[in-house]
Design brief:
Elements lengths: L19 E7 L3 H7 L3 H7 L23 E7 L4 E8 L5 E4 L6 H4 L13 E11 L2 E14 L2 E14 L10 E4 L19 E3 L6 E4 L7 E9 L2 E2 L2 E5 L1 E2 L5 E5 L6 E4 H10 L3 E3 L2 E4 L10 E5 L2 E5 L1 H4 E3 L5 E3 L1 E4 L4 E3 L1 H4 L2 E6 L4 E7 L1
Parallel strand pairs: 3-8, 4-7, 15-24, 16-23
Antiparallel strand pairs: 1-2, 1-10, 2-3, 2-6, 4-8, 5-6, 6-7, 9-25, 11-26, 12-13, 13-15, 14-19, 16-24, 17-18, 18-22, 19-20, 21-22, 25-26
């Protein structure tokens, strides 16, 4: 099993009334590439990953995780230059590699060349974004950005000049943030002025702008008010008998992340043993392992073991529950594989429904 959300994103633009559907591409995650090359253990020790750093409010531009490789193709410039980017509800910045970058991570990805675009305008301000396992730096510029036929002129974006070493193992070129604009240095909301952003992982691999597709979920939608209009943050009443928590729903994080004691309790209940920061289970026991249930706004959202356990190298299996510092939880792709999620910025609500 892999940590991948097949995504349906629905974004309503104020200037576009039609529904647009855009193919989403799945690539191997950085972890999968590193494992294939026998480098995973070396990299995880050299670049310790702290997914909760992404949501550290002390940063003007929050540190971001880069663990998901579900990407969509966008274009920047005139004539258009194409890039594969990750749609990330846990950040609000848009950036791509540029010709000004000579890092290893840039040299094996597409680079934006402003000299080839007649509509590019330089901003010149520096850009720096810290990640859980590194950082990127660059400069800001303006150009036409096109997503699935929807073009926005004079959109500000980042052109990288340096990128963290681990990013050379990612298949996506850059990031397209979909969190609230107050989190962003770049004000990507000029491009994504969204009423609805919908994620679905069970049927097809597509991004939809302009409407909700009932073919991708069953039953009714549970609408949940946001508890913080910075990230897509909600209140979780309980997790399989454990207490409540605040949680960020984040397509840019692979696992479900929580405080050390809570995650230890859940993994102990599941029969997992901790090894090198991961929680190992017997792959033969998946069929007998219990469901994990999140109680949110009076509704139950259940994850079976077939969703929260996945196989890694050497035929071992780990759970999708990862511990970190702090009190916040992150509901990443492990959760979103099961549920169609709707991000309604207009009413500051999150919608969840069972994915088909």
């Amino acid at each position: 099993l892999s940590f991948f959300v097949v995504v349906v994103v629905v974004v309503v633009f104020p200037i576009f009334l039609q529904v647009h559907m855009i193919p989403l591409e799945k690539g191997k995650s950085a972890r999968e590439v590193l494992e294939e090359q026998g480098l995973w253990e070396e990299y995880r020790q050299k670049y310790p990953y702290n997914p909760m750093a992404k949501f550290d409010g002390s940063f003007a531009v929050g540190p971001e995780s880069m663990t998901n490789d579900a990407g969509v193709i966008i274009s920047i410039g005139t004539p258009p230059q194409s890039f594969k980017v990750i749609f990330d509800t846990g950040s609000s910045n848009l950036w791509v590699p540029s010709i000004y970058c000579n890092s290893a991570a840039c040299n094996n990805h597409a680079k934006f060349d402003p000299r080839r675009s007649s509509t590019y305008r330089q901003n010149g301000r520096p850009l720096s974004i810290t990640y859980g396992t590194g950082s990127m730096t660059g400069i800001l510029g303006y150009d036409t950005v096109t997503v699935g036929g929807l073009a926005v002129t004079n959109q500000i974006f980042g052109l990288s000049q340096t990128e963290a070493p681990f990013m050379q193992y990612m298949q996506a070129d850059g990031i397209f943030g979909l969190a609230y604009p107050s989190l962003s240095l770049l004000h990507v909301s000029e491009l994504v002025n969204a009423s609805y952003i919908n994620f679905n992982n069970q049927r097809g691999s597509v991004v939809t702008f302009g409407g909700v597709d009932t073919n991708h979920y069953s039953g009714s939608i549970t609408w949940i008010p946001l508890s913080n209009e910075l990230y897509w943050q909600i209140t979780v009443d309980s997790v399989s008998g454990n207490g409540g928590c605040q949680a960020v729903v984040d397509t840019g994080t692979s696992m479900i992340v929580g405080p050390q004691s809570d995650i230890d309790n859940i993994n102990s209940w599941l029969g997992a043993s901790r090894q090198n920061g991961e929680y190992i289970v017997n792959c033969n026991n998946i069929g007998q392992m219990p469901d994990v249930t999140f109680n949110i706004n009076g509704q139950q959202f259940t994850l079976p073991a077939s969703v929260y356990v996945y196989q890694v190298q050497y035929n071992s299996c780990i759970t999708g529950f990862s511990a970190t510092g702090g009190n916040m939880w992150i509901l990443g792709d492990v959760f979103l594989r099961q549920y169609y999620s709707i991000y309604n910025r207009g009413q500051n609500m999150l919608g969840l429904a069972k994915a088909r």
